[in-house]
Amino acid sequence: QVQPGESGGGSVRAGDSLRLSCTASDLASSHNAVAWFRQAPGKEREFVAAISWGGAIPSYPDSVKGRFTISRDNAKDTVYLQMISLKPEDTATYYCATTSTTSDRYAPKNAEYYHYWGQGTQVTVSS
Question: Is the distance from CB of 112 to CB of 79 less than 8 angstroms?
């Protein structure tokens, strides 16, 4: 297992878009499910999106539904989080996490199931 790395964060204005990337050299070969979580200062970590190694996607939380889309390109060992219509409340550090699974349809939403975490990438949305 390899620690994933995030990129793509930045400072944008409300209504803008960003695409985050999560890369790990064994993302596809280790049959990894991948999830995005975020944490704002003073708040608990929040599940954002997940995708199984076979491409199955569990439901998004209401806070991002319709605005965030997770996808993966196994050929590039990369998972993306496309974020549109960003709001100030989306401001947080976004973390990518991976876990090896035996099912190509399984992607947990609970952080305790993920064993490898990136360092995080900051997303700041101003009004």
Answer: no
In degrees, rounded to 5, the angle at the alpha carbon of residue 22 between the alpha carbons of residues 16 and 26 is 165
Q: How far is CA 69 from CA 21, 101, 116, in A?
A: 12, 21, 21
Instruction: Find where tokens 């995080």 sit.
Output: 120
**Could you tell me which residues are beta bridge partners of residue 109?**
none
Given the structure tokens 């199931």, which residue do they identify?
113
Query: How do residues 65-77 score in pLDDT, each as one tens digit?
Result: 999 999 999 999 9
What is residue 89's DSSP assignment? G
Quote the DSSP letter at residue 113. Answer: G
> Shortest CA distance to 36 belongs to which of 13, 67, 76?
67
Per-residue model confidence as pLDDT tens digits over 99-121: 998 899 999 999 999 999 999 99
112: helix, coil or strand? Answer: helix
Nearest to 95 by CA among 114, 78, 120, 70: 120
Quick one: pLDDT at residue 26? 83
Classified as helix, coil or strand, 76 is helix
Query: Would you say residue 28 has pLDDT above 80?
Result: no
